[in-house]
Amino acid sequence: MPERTYRAAIIGTGGIAHAHAKAVLASAERTLDSGTSDGRASDDGTSAGGASNGGASRGRAELVAVADVDAGRAREFAATYGIPHAYASAEELLREERLDVAHLCTPPQQHAPLALACLEAGVTALVEKPPTLSLAEFDTLIEAERRSAGHVATVLQHRFGAGAVRLRRLARAGELGRPLLATCLTQWYRDDDYYAVPWRGTWESEGGGPTMGHGIHQFDLLLSVLGPWREVTAVAARQARPVDTEDVSMALVTFESGATATVVNSVLSPRQTSELRFDFERATVEVEHLYGYTDDDWTVTPAPGHDGVSSLWKADPGSGSSGHGDWFTAVLDALDQGQAPPVTAADARRTMEFIAALYASAFTGERVRAGQITADSPFAHRMDGTGAPWRTT
């Protein structure tokens, strides 16, 4: 039997909320289908043992409530997933329900105020990307977390597929040799109709363009593998879409290890792809997918004389994907152990600082070092800082 069943709610019932609902409901199925687990967590916060012992029909978590400003949509969502209570506001939900975790699936500009409300209520906030609109806003969440019984964690689920977990494990064990270079591509296509939704395409509502809302999954995974970054040189442009933000950005990144990487974020690319390539001394490790990978999407090419790397990769099999299910399992594993759920505030801040540095470099034409964007920098308070070098729409 699991030690406890966590009471969960979903705030916001847009498209991504369905992935969250399915992840919570799957916790019951995993509990019933799984055997025993040692409950360990890996050093990057991902699950090392799967679900807890089986037997509870409610599973490790249960959805007890949902909220949406459109009350009818909240009721419809609740009926779809068998959720007992539906509310027309997050405030009412937090006032009426006893919760352990709240999944925040609203448009980005609502993430920070809702996360603060959750923390004030002692509820752990699981925040969809991007977690906030700015680095300063994120630091406000960190301060609030220190005063709360709850935690704040960002939903960056690409860290949790089996291939990514295996790659980090082999890299940290030194099995791949030194990291040398990497490429990180998020080349997607979003047409003008996509930006007809009122909250899309502005700095005030989304915080940025594809750098904030699309490429973040890929380069967050890049950062989780290569570790602390040292400096960024970047460009950003608005080429074609009717938006105030960029619709493409490119960056050259240097890491503390000495490795270098290129990062491309685009919503202008008719042949869509999401690609990561890591060139280590002893092997090239690659993954190509679109919106989520499985273990079959990864390839390993050993350097001459290092064929054993392939054997190490194959000897560590896994079937986990980069979906919300494996991420939520890792969240529950951490909560079971009294730990902050992944991706922690400290982890997510490094990614948010990277985004701010990318924009600062693109809009000032200068290299930006880690730690350079301090509290008094305009790029700490808005990702466009002193203003984008193009006219607003």
TrEMBL record:
In this protein, which residues make up the domain named GFO/IDH/MocA-like oxidoreductase? 166-284
- What residue stretches are annotated with the Gfo/Idh/MocA-like oxidoreductase N-terminal domain? 7-148
Which residue intervals make up region (Disordered)? 33-57
**Which InterPro entries does the UniProt record give?**
Gfo/Idh/MocA-like_OxRdtase_N (IPR000683), Gfo/Idh/MocA_Oxidoreductase (IPR052515), GFO_IDH_MocA-like_dom (IPR055170), NAD(P)-bd_dom_sf (IPR036291)
Biased region (Gly residues) positions are 47-57
**Pfam families tied to this protein:** GFO_IDH_MocA, GFO_IDH_MocA_C3
Name the residue ranges with Low complexity bias: 33-46
> Which protein, by its recorded name, is this?
Gfo/Idh/MocA family oxidoreductase
Q: Which organism is it from?
A: Nonomuraea maheshkhaliensis
Q: What is the lineage of its organism?
A: Bacteria, Bacillati, Actinomycetota, Actinomycetes, Streptosporangiales
